[in-house]
Amino acid sequence: MRIVIVGGGFAGINLAKGLAGDKNFDVTLVDKNNYNFFPPLIYQVATAFLEPSSISYPFRKLFRKNENIHFRLGEVLSVRTEDNVVVLNNGELEYDRLVFATGAESNYFGMENVRKNAIPMKTLNDAIEMRNKLLQRMEKAAICKNSRERRKYLNIVVAGGGPTGVEVSGMFAEMRNGILRKEYPELSTSVSNIYLVDGGDALLAPMSKKSQKDTYEALEKLGVIIKLNTRVVDFKDDTVYFHNGETIQSKNLIWAAGVSAKTFDGIPETSYGRGKRFSVDGYNKVANTTNIYALGDTSIMEGVDSAFMGGHPQLAQVAIQQGTLLAKNLKRELKNEALKTFKYNDKGSMAIIGKNKAVADLPKPEMHFKGFIAWIMWLFIHVMSLIGYRNRIITAYNWMIAYLSKDQSLRMIIRPDKSRKKGEVNPD
Amino acid sequence: MRIVIVGGGFAGINLAKGLAGDKNFDVTLVDKNNYNFFPPLIYQVATAFLEPSSISYPFRKLFRKNENIHFRLGEVLSVRTEDNVVVLNNGELEYDRLVFATGAESNYFGMENVRKNAIPMKTLNDAIEMRNKLLQRMEKAAICKNSRERRKYLNIVVAGGGPTGVEVSGMFAEMRNGILRKEYPELSTSVSNIYLVDGGDALLAPMSKKSQKDTYEALEKLGVIIKLNTRVVDFKDDTVYFHNGETIQSKNLIWAAGVSAKTFDGIPETSYGRGKRFSVDGYNKVANTTNIYALGDTSIMEGVDSAFMGGHPQLAQVAIQQGTLLAKNLKRELKNEALKTFKYNDKGSMAIIGKNKAVADLPKPEMHFKGFIAWIMWLFIHVMSLIGYRNRIITAYNWMIAYLSKDQSLRMIIRPDKSRKKGEVNPD
């Protein structure tokens, strides 16, 4: 049976792993990158605490011992469901079962200026772009004579009070209090503010009230200015505009405020549900299709799982469990065994705030942790989840050094040298 | 005394270090990157054995404890010698002494097609570009049905038989024999050749005959096809053209065949010597100037040093020793002490061939090493030269892993995501 998996994130990887070594399945994993990466840590790459390679791993290496798993670098353009063919930007693939595990992408809610000028936080490339841009702007601030202008380079507005927004703004606050003062003597007297804004009335909305309160207090203590019930409506002329008429002067808007699913040509409109996510049944089969599946963030399973009748949260654990279950169900199908419907096993959630504080909620038994103990839990769980022995060691080592020295050493502005061929100087 | 140093390579860094902490000097280091990097190892970044951060270090961090050393991100456009002002792309700086430590850049000898299409090997950005391009081309080869076309993606031509060319072609040969076969089953029956071409009649021209012979034999054993007395004259339509009429079909031409110095507006023509390098006296002062100096690769000191009357080789050791000496001479000048002329202390030279072979020539006593023992010497000297404790550990660790596993794990195609804003797919 030919399986084409589109997307090598948590869901896609776990499905492929589940089918690895079973000769009944000929699996092709399609991804636009040649590597899997670990999204919970991209904010650490963005703030120069971790190398991209510490949180990513090449697909070909991951599956090199599995002859029935093939990798294909490419992007899906459309699907010809009548022929069972998926059309890529560089060829076509036939399938017996097609699985979308394409995740979610940044949603700018139609705000064109935000899309063009804000810095997103979804992919590893986003993280590297952010690292480079912020470092370049600090250098520009260092030679800027006008204090009003200088503040625009230094102020940072983070939109979105979910884990990414909380983690990245906490990290910025730590950096401002440490590195900025040590290494930029030109800026020692400058004011720079870090804002965290969210349209809702709490940070980390899906977590417990206790975690929300601890997070709010910890970020305020670090000097982050938190604005709740505040929505971004525009971003132009170095100014972030909010729905209530307020503005903040800044060149740096970090966008972690929303995600949307990706739609594909050739899939019937009726297959999509809320938020353009693929509407799936209890086996993750897409509505109004016979052999197409969708997993994780890009799917929505309504009316199946008793505790989550409105659909599951878009979390790594859901994607992992759905990928694993689909592998088992595909095997059961071949053996004519009864399939199992999906039931989410909530293992809890956590977020890190700054260098050595975190919050964690566990569901069974219901418990809440905060501070250093939650940070150690976070560290342990995240390092253990990283693919590959090498990545784990390097990551643990980097964290240990960063923790001991309150410092990060990866602040190189590195990018392909576009200037060489065009004769330009120092592009931004 | 205001010192402006242009370029933070071996020469510039060593001059700045020599002046660090001396209140008589107010030093500004100007560089177009915000980091120092270690050129002898960029071929390891290019072949995905080392992370960029393992061989680079931010200037601001390097000098953060030295109040008299300032960093300025920028590029020199011209010099107004009459006003003692250097004009940057983002401002101006006044100086009492101006020091050029600008190194050398790739020289394409006027071949426009080579400049546009070949992959250079001088900067860290070059190395990352090479890593990304070659990985993308391997993926393209993997889906290419036409065996003739496929070979164009896989053949690699390395131009230049100096240390960089030798090291990079040896590394490619190791990769072909290892990773390519393991991770690209699609290519297992494909032929891919690695060519090393040089216009002269020996590899590693400045080294001993013994080292040249050992290198030649070791590379041949790895399967590298060596063509001496062969000059590239053009590179177009996926074909490398040579002066003798031969051609090789390939998309991949790595350019390590020559360097040239950079000239600056405002410096009199009469200040430049052979190869447009700044003509300097025994104190590295530029001819026909009163307060401008040049160090390392970008300078040529003729008729001074008895063993090197025609000028010194363009090597790291020369740059380091000239930077160190100039710092001392500037201090002597302030104290009205006699200055010392430069005398190069040759510590020997070495090159690595593949994973665990190297050649080394020592001058005093004259000795030649090869094989594993030379490799260990090479490793020790290079790791010890890396700036920063962290870099040393990570580098040593990566090498150990690569050596034990004959593998490299950094094969991620990572680049700023240009496609996001333009709606393009998978640009190459």
Your description of this structure?
The structure is a homodimer of 428-residue chains. Chain A is an alpha/beta fold. The first copy, chain A, folds into 2 domains: 2-104 and 261-334, FAD/NAD(P)-binding domain (3-Layer(bba) Sandwich); 112-259 and 349-405, FAD/NAD(P)-binding domain. Chain A has 12 helices and 25 strands. Chain A has helices at residues 10-19, 42-46, 59-62, 112-117, 124-142, 147-154, 163-183, 209-222, 316-334, 371-385, 389-405, 419-422; strands spanning 2-6, 26-31, 35-37, 56-58, 69-73, 76-80, 85-88, 91-94, 97-100, 105-106, 119-120, 156-159, 194-197, 225-227, 232-236, 239-242, 247-249, 252-255, 259-260, 278-279, 292-294, 299-300, 349-353, 357-362, 367-370. Chain A has a 5-stranded parallel β-sheet, with helices on one face. Chain A has a 5-stranded parallel β-sheet with strand order 11-18-12-13-14. In chain A, strands 6-7-8 form a 3-stranded antiparallel β-sheet, with no helix packed on it. In chain A, a hairpin with a 2-residue loop joins strand 15 and strand 16 (239-242). In chain A, helix 1 (10-19) packs parallel to helix 9 (316-334), helix 5 runs antiparallel to helix 6 (147-154) and helix 10 packs antiparallel against helix 11 (389-405). The longest helix of chain A is centred in the middle third of the chain and has 21 residues, at 163-183. The termini of chain A are far apart. At the A-B interface, strand 4, strand 5, helix 5 and helix 11 of A face strand 4, strand 5, helix 5 and helix 11 of B.
